[in-house]
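Researcher: Sequence recovery benchmark, item below. Answer with residues only.
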């Protein structure tokens, strides 16, 4: 049994990490300011772990409420932890364009505090939520980790800085860190409640309500949509993998699906046939995104276990039942 802190553990991806860690019998501390995270996500994670046989899960779960941009909160979050999974962020490209100062505080100030706190607490390893948006518009696909980053938005820049801080803490202080670059993660508990929400959660919400989805641009932009269970697998492998320290590693499916195609597949699953509304392209948007996952295979032994369509089916089932 190890002690894990999941920052942003009340959020979408964070709560799935919490769920799996509880299932595996670990001690889990959630640190969240509940700005976008929700208590019901933690409750759902706990309930799922208990349902799967982890009867004592509640006794292994602790919540620290507070803002990690406050160093004292970061210290409380990291005290006694073996591993820190730093997922807390304001994870939206357009929101960062709208309000770069708020997203800088959440994505950089808080990250530096978590690193300092983890270093001082003697944490074994920090795993950071990086982003495919760091690559920007590269002419070559798939995107691999040797490519230079080219952030097109404050959000992408903040993730680059976060990663560089990770690497620097490994070099300067010997704190082991790994950055996992996420590619358009989707799944149950992704919140469709804001215009900044992930596109799959928004499309499902609209289609279930019988409303036409909006597509920004011509819909031929592509993404490597990744079901959340794959990310959980990659992140937990990154905690232990001996050669991963100091590295940035893509975790995705290595596929590429256009928004038009996404909508077609979703309408097939839902049995709807709504015509989308096409609007202007979104500023700061990347055109194409597809991951190479060779490095993840090599360093983490990772391979995607739930592919795009199966992930969509599971997500739709959750939205229908929620
Ligand atoms: C997403 C993540 C970001 C992550 C990045 C890389 C979210 C909210 N953002 O950014 O945290 O770092 O992937 O993994 O999950 N679109 C529409 N109609 C809509 C909404 C979006 O056409 O109603 C389009 C967007 O213009 C974009 C694509 O769908 O081209 C994906 O958008 P979005 O889900 O917001 O994700 P990213 O910006 O790619």
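Model:
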């Amino acid at each position: 049994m190890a002690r894990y802190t999941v920052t942003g553990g009340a959020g979408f991806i964070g709560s799935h990490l919490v769920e799996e860690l509880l299932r595996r019998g670990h001690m889990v501390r959630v640190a969240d300011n509940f700005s976008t995270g929700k208590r019901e996500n933690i409750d759902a994670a706990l309930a799922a772990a208990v349902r799967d046989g982890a009867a004592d899960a509640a006794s292994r779960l602790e919540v620290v409420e507070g803002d990690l941009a406050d160093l004292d909160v970061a210290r409380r979050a990291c005290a006694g932890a073996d591993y820190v999974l730093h997922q807390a962020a304001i994870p939206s490209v357009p929101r960062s364009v709208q309000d770069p100062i708020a997203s800088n505080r959440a994505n950089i100030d808080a990250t530096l505090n978590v690193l300092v706190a983890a270093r001082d607490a003697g944490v074994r390893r920090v795993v950071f939520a990086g982003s495919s948006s760091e690559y920007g518009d590269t002419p070559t696909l798939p995107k691999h980790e040797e490519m230079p980053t080219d952030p097109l938005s404050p959000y992408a820049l903040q993730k680059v800085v976060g990663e560089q801080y990770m690497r620097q803490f490994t070099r300067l202080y010997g704190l082991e860190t790994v950055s996992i670059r996420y590619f358009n993660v989707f799944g149950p508990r992704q919140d469709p409640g804001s215009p900044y929400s992930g596109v799959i959660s928004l499309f499902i919400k609209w289609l279930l309500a019988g409303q036409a989805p909006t597509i920004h641009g011509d819909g031929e932009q592509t993404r490597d949509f990744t079901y959340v269970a794959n990310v959980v697998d990659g992140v937990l492998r990154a905690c232990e993998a001996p050669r991963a320290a100091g590295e940035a590693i893509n975790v995705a499916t290595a596929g590429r699906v256009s928004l038009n195609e996404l909508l077609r597949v979703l309408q097939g699953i839902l049995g709807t046939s709504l015509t989308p509304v096409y609007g202007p392209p979104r500023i700061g948007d990347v055109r194409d995104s597809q991951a190479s996952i060779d490095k993840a295979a090599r360093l983490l032994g990772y391979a995607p276990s739930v592919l795009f369509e199966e992930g969509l089916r599971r997500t739709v089932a959750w939205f229908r039942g929620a």
